[in-house]
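for the writeup, i need someone to sanity check this before i put it in the appendix. the sequnce is what the collaborator sent (i think, or maybe the updated version? ugh). structure was predicted straight from it, no edits. if anything looks off just tell me and ill rerun, i have time this weekend
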Amino acid sequence: MTIEQEFFNQYRLMYRPFINLVNVQLEKYQLFSSQWALLRLLMDKGPHTFVDIANFMFIEKPSVTRLVQKLVELGYVETVAGRDKREKLIQLTANGEEIVQEIKAQLKPFFEQALAGVSERDIEIATKVLANICANINR
């Protein structure tokens, strides 16, 4: 196996179990990791359009619509008018902001456990490496 194959194999072996465990943590909020990613985006970067969300998450707009509908039903997000009447922005509700903070606190020990024994420097390097790979793939 080449070093490249081993790298992506290790990534694959980590990714699915990681997502499954995150989903277990999110169950009590009736969320999945993709919905959590959207909530984090809105918390970190503010309101976004459906198109912006689709581009950020690398998914189709109908998938964004389904994600948003579920989050609206839960009372975590709402749609508001954008700059022009045709544009809709998705933003967190006050309840959504509270839930995001609660989930972040709940996930913190899980992330710490997952990264146990990994130095801060290695985490920084791995983060840069993954960002570079992502940029290469999406060129």
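The chain has a mean pLDDT of 94. Strands lie at 48-49, 77-81, 88-92.
thx in advance!!
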